[in-house]
Design goal:
The chain has 18 helices and 16 strands. With 442 residues, the chain is α/β, with parallel strands linked by helices. It folds into three domains: 99 residues, no CATH class; 121 residues; 193 residues, Rossmann fold (3-Layer(aba) Sandwich), CATH 3.40.50. α17 crosses α18.
């Protein structure tokens, strides 16, 4: 493992396979060939951790804690577990929020925390396919379906394009399901809640609509994404409860000349109908300062209904801190969010593609860059409800109305599932309901 952290990569790595992590991928593959599945899982976790450190190695994130960037840099370079442990302890004392994102947990330990009917699916996209780890109380099962990374990216992008266009999805859905879910057909029959830890282009995929036998995955189980396996296990063991009586702040963002939002304001009215305690921010009260203040004050839920951008207006930028939310008096950037501290249990981003990171020349699948959803997790939000596609204003209103109604009595994850299934009854195409995803942070 220590050697893998020092290898820069293959002599001629693919442009779609970052050379920094090629040694980890090769090592995990070798371990799987020799039946050392639990050790392969640990290698994949170390690769994820290093990717997370790369993302966090940005001094702009720590303006009020100048010591943190140095610790993050030393963690990236560390090849000693004892040194890493000491650095993590220092990081926890300075910034527990960042330290929580550095958590790793063995597959043996995770198994012991998963109850009956709960499972984790951890994916890692490598050059020649996908490494998929299924974890439940019974054990660890591993699959390595083969498909070149470039072909997988093309398949996911094709699915997303057809989904947004409300075109027929049968063929592409079946191909994705065969690749990602079919290896675990027997295990899926017994699962009621499933934690997903995704990687690379799979972060952009709406898993809820993938077919499993004669059903879609959402009909089979409650789904929740997470930044890492330990957070997924936490979310399954201690789901975020009902919203009845909880603090809720809801804001309507600004419409744009070519993109009106006739139903965004209606979303706020519906929230208050279901939760009378909700505080609504409209008109001049719905500015960037109010959004940032609401992010930092209180726990409970922060809801934003409005436009989102994956990057700044400069389309050539590859800055991982480039996206924004559009408020009445300006944009709230990713950097604005990251330099705040939040204790919000739930942030709802009822906007287009808030789960996605903008692709760049160096990362055509958005890997290694920040999505709006991930940014709110890094700021401290426990859960984020976001979207994987350009959501129709009407579709968002339909899902949100049913979500907030169900969340009066159900857990947040179950309420989202029920809302999506209800919308599916009257609007079967996944474009109406499958793009909404719930994720858990550190």
């Amino acid at each position: 493992m220590a050697i893998a952290r020092t290898i820069t990569g293959r002599a001629a790595p693919s442009a779609l396979s970052p050379p920094r992590y090629a040694a980890f991928d090769d090592l995990a593959g070798l371990l799987l060939k020799t039946g050392r599945d639990f050790e392969a899982f640990e290698v994949v976790e170390q690769a994820r951790l290093l990717e997370q450190l790369e993302l966090l190695d940005d001094a702009r994130l720590y303006r009020d804690r100048p010591e943190v960037p140095g610790i993050v840099q030393r963690l990236k370079e560390s090849t000693s577990s004892s040194v890493a442990t000491s650095l993590n302890e220092q990081l926890h004392s300075l910034d527990p929020r960042v330290a929580a994102l550095m958590r790793t947990e063995s597959a043996h330990s995770l198994r012991g925390r998963l109850g009956a009917g709960s499972a984790l699916l951890v994916y890692r996209v490598i050059e020649d396919g996908v490494l998929a780890f299924w974890l439940d109380a019974k054990g660890l099962r591993v699959a390595h379906p083969r498909l070149p990374r470039a072909a997988l990216l093309q398949l996911v992008q094709g699915y997303a394009q057809r989904l947004s266009a409300r075109a027929d999805l049968q063929e592409v859905s079946q191909r994705l399901s065969k690749l990602l879910l079919e290896p675990f057909t027997e295990q899926l029959k017994d699962v009621q809640q499933l934690g997903l830890v995704l990687h690379g282009p799979l972060r952009n995929l709406s898993f809820a609509a993938l077919p499993v036998d004669e059903r879609v995955l959402l009909q089979q189980a409650v789904l929740i994404r997470a930044l890492h396996p330990a957070a997924a296990a936490d979310a399954l063991a201690r789901p975020l409860g009902a919203l009845a009586g909880q603090d809720i702040v809801a804001m309507a963002g600004a419409a744009e000349q070519d993109r009106p939002l006739p139903f965004a304001d209606r979303e706020l009215t519906v929230i208050q109908e279901e939760h009378p305690q909700a505080q609504l921010l409209r008109g001049q009260a719905a500015g960037r300062g109010a959004l940032l203040k609401a992010l930092q004050s209180g726990q409970g839920t922060l809801h934003f209904a409005g436009h989102a951008r994956l990057s700044s207006r400069d389309a050539s930028t590859s800055d991982p801190l480039g996206g924004s939310l559009v408020t009445r008096d300006g944009e709230v950037s990713l950097l604005d969010v990251l330099t705040r501290r939040s204790r919000r249990d739930l942030v709802v981003l009822s906007s287009c593609q808030t789960q996605l990171a903008r692709p760049s020349a160096g990362a055509p699948d958005g890997a290694g860059l920040l999505s709006l959803a991930r940014t709110f997790h890094l700021a401290g939000a426990g859960h984020v409800l976001a979207t994987t596609l350009r959501v129709d204003d009407v579709a968002a209103a339909l899902v949100m109305k049913r979500f907030y109604r169900a969340a009066r009595r159900l857990s947040v994850a179950e309420a989202l599932r029920q809302a999506q299934l209800l919308v599916r009854e009257s609007h079967p195409h996944p474009a109406w309901w499958a793009g909404f995803v719930l994720s858990a942070g550190g």
